[in-house]
Structure to design on (820 residues):
């Protein structure tokens, strides 16, 4: 096909807005809100300008937009060493223990702040009964900071009344930004509905960040941000694989549907080193609604069984040990998936979680009032964070205290903050850890001045909401330090503003130029619309890279077949069209999804073992191979040639 | 269709500084559109202003997460959710009423059963968060920027562990 060109003949040229700042925060979720809060304290007295750019409205952006019913990382009485052991165990023996330890030792401080700012945290009263966060405050029970006892739903998790969790955290971040804005005398430092699509590097040093560019999804404006240091905090990657839902239910992704892999794609295009992009998360959740199971398993002590009433994690243990040895006994999340799938494939489904038995058992020793409270707690678990699951129950006349529910492993997701560890290779803490994991600034990528946090930091999962906030704070402080140390250096990109605007708006020009050629703008030989582009990516990823269609199975030969299609998807992406700014948003999200998906496939291709059974399988290397693969798999991408360089990095155990 | 807008109730937030659902939707789904009469296919015009009547709609329902942000924020209570039709039977509904310190939920089952729940949402009023009180009063000491820990750790004097 003829290459597309944008001469502004068929689409109105946007205004180009240039904004200069010192610290640029790309994203508005937990990580960037944490960064804004901490950076304000360090950077404002030094006169440095902090700017946040969010593609949505910060009150309800990121993975916590809907709310949460628990904070999954609160160490409290636990040791930081034990936190590292837990994370390492669930990530099948490989984690950056320096990053994990560093996060674990500070994360509680963010939880204390959330409570200060008004997040209701459940407490235990003197009789050991659970009390909601508002009543706990009314009754003047001590805060967590002052030694209050949270309600643990697991060793690391605490229960909250978290409907407004993100709104509260956003308010604090906005206050910090406002403080910085006033002190530095700028007109605006918080941009909502501006989608950053590319990073820019220094014209003389391609290993140094110099800015970022994006566009408004509301007004015809291209935004160019000049900065010396930037934080990529744009979340994980959702909807790169064919979904189990077939139509409108595709929006009911387990992870936020707006996480489009921007963090991974923009970093890869800049040449930043990626790590563990082969890792993925396949949550086993309530079927279709993807409601959370954590509180059901850990707090309410519900059991899951196959249709014969068997505990699949007991009956399939010995069989699983043959391939996965000692990893079976530690029973990480993927291993539980693996044993569940053995039964599903054997026709022993449906797999059910016995919510009814759990609640009835708990009710046996309870008063009527307490039973009512228990029922409310069970429903709140969904209503705080996955309201759709309550909708699924209501639509099916299911009351969890009366009937069990079906569980289902979902389509795969890429993320670095939850029970997965895909992301960027970042520098570790300054005060401990191997030299090869540290090159000066905590959470800085291999591009100078470019930092990341939350889902962006690879090889260190199980941070969740509180950990992402805390990691953003680590990065915000580190960015200030980097800025102060490099004050004298000149930084500037070489890109031409006009050319950037042309590239960003290309899909709009394409639509304007060609849509009239056919009577139906959806079917046109000159372009592909973003929604169809996404479907095409999802189908290839599903069939060749181990999606639900193959029971998460792939191999060298399957991947290599898939690469052929991925290359053409990348070529055709340049022919995407966009009718309006909303569709332009989707087009650029899909540019990002495609590259994130390719990184995932390239990494799986390189790692010749099945490190995460239950998440994906290499059919040609079905076992775990510690001798050759107890290491990180890292990569860099060359955007000029489209080539990936994939290689091993050594794993160092720091905690016995 | 996941979120849907009840025609009668939506006033497009006319007279307010922004259209609430459009402002809040994390995935840019809610938009304003001209209303077309379903029978005559003609754009409906407001006889007083002689301008097309604008209403909100979910422009891309397959991308809706059912996060209910639009439902919770709508000042007219004009937005509801019809659960994903590719897997959920008709007739169930989940209705939030978000207040200043709590949220009231009504769950309507397909068979007509109803459950109601009320949960707290915050213990500090919206707009009253103070990041400069309590521990937040502390200042960062830039001479300690290379030391581990946040400004709060430094202020309280908490030492941080390293791996034993």
């Amino acid at each position: 096909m003829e290459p597309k060109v944008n001469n502004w003949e068929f689409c109105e040229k946007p205004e180009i807005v240039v904004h200069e700042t010192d610290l640029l925060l790309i994203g508005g979720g937990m990580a960037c809100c944490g960064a804004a809060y901490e950076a304000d304290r360090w950077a404002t007295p030094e006169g440095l300008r902090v700017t946040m750019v969010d593609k949505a409205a910060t009150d309800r952006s990121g993975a916590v937009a809907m709310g949460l019913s628990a904070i999954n990382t609160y160490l409290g009485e636990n040791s930081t060493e034990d936190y590292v052991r837990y994370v390492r165990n669930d990530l099948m023996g490989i984690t950056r223990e320096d990053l994990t330890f560093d996060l674990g030792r500070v994360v509680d401080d963010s939880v204390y702040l959330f409570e200060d700012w008004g997040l209701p945290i459940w407490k235990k009263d003197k009789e050991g009964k659970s009390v909601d966060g508002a009543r706990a405050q009314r009754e003047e029970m001590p805060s967590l900071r002052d030694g209050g006892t949270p309600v643990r739903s697991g060793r690391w998790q605490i229960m909250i009344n978290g409907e407004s969790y993100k709104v509260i955290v956003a308010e604090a971040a906005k206050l910090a930004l406002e403080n910085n804005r006033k002190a530095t005398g700028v007109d605006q430092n918080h941009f909502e509905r501006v989608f950053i699509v590319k990073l820019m590097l220094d014209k003389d040093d391609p290993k140094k960040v110099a800015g970022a560019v994006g566009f408004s999804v509301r007004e015809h404006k291209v935004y160019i941000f000049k900065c010396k240091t930037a934080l990529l905090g744009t979340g994980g990657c959702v909807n790169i694989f064919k979904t189990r839902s077939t139509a409108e239910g595709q929006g009911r992704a387990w992870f936020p549907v707006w996480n489009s892999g921007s963090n991974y794609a923009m970093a890869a295009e800049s040449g930043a080193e990626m790590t563990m992009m082969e890792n993925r998360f396949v949550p086993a959740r309530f079927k279709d609604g993807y409601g959370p199971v954590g509180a059901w398993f850990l707090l309410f002590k519900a059991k899951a069984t196959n249709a014969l009433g068997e505990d699949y994690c007991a009956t399939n243990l010995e069989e699983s040990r043959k391939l996965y040895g000692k990893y079976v006994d530690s029973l990480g999340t993927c291993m539980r998936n693996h044993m569940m799938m053995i039964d599903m494939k054997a026709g022993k489904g449906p797999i059910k979680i016995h919510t009814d038995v759990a609640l009835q058992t708990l009710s046996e020793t309870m008063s009527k009032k307490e039973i009512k409270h228990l029922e409310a707690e069970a429903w709140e678990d969904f209503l705080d964070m996955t309201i759709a699951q309550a909708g699924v129950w209501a639509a099916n006349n299911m009351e969890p205290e009366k009937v069990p529910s079906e569980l289902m492993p979902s389509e795969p997701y890429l993320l670095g903050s939850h029970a997965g560890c895909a992301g960027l290779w970042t520098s570790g803490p300054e005060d401990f850890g191997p030299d090869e994991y540290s090159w000066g600034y905590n959470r800085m990528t291999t591009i100078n001045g470019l930092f990341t946090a939350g889902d962006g930091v690879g090889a260190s999962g199980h941070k969740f909401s509180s950990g992402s906030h805390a990691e953003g704070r680590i990065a915000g402080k580190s960015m200030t330090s980097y800025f102060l140390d490099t004050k004298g250096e000149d930084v500037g990109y070489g890109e031409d503003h006009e050319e950037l605007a042309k590239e960003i708006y290309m899909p709009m020009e394409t639509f304007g130029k060609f849509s009239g050629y056919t009577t139906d703008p959806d079917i046109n030989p000159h372009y592909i619309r973003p929604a169809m582009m996404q479907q095409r990516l999802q189908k290839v990823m599903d069939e060749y890279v181990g999606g639900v269609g193959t029971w998460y199975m792939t191999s060298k030969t399957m991947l290599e077949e898939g690469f052929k299609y991925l290359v053409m998807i990348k070529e055709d992406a340049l022919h995407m069209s966009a009718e309006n700014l909303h569709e332009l948003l989707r087009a650029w999200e899909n540019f990002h999804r495609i590259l994130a998906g390719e990184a995932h496939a390239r990494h799986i291709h390189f790692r010749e073992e099945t490190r995460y059974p239950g998440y994906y399988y290499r059919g040609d290397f079905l076992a775990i191979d510690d001798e050759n693969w107890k290491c990180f798999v890292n990569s860099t991408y060359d955007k000029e040639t489209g080539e990936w360089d994939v290689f091993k990095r050594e794993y160092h155990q720091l905690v016995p | 269709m996941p979120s849907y807008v009840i025609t009668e109730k939506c006033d497009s937030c006319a007279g307010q500084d922004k259209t609430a659902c459009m402002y809040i939707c994390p995935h840019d789904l809610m938009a304003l559109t001209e209303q077309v009469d379903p029978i005559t296919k003609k754009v409906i015009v407001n006889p007083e202003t002689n301008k097309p009547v604008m209403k909100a709609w979910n422009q891309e329902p397959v991308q809706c997460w059912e996060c209910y942000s639009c439902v919770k924020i709508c000042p007219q209570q004009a937005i509801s959710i019809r659960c994903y039709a590719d897997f959920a039977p008709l007739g169930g509904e989940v209705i939030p009423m978000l207040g200043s310190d709590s949220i009231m939920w009504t769950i309507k089952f397909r068979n007509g059963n109803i459950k109601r729940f009320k949960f707290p949402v915050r213990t500090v009023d919206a707009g009253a968060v103070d990041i400069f009180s309590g521990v937040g009063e502390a200042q960062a000491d830039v001479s300690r920027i290379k030391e581990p820990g946040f400004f709060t750790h430094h202020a309280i004097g908490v030492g941080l562990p390293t791996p034993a």
Notes: The first helix of chain A runs from residue 30 to 43.
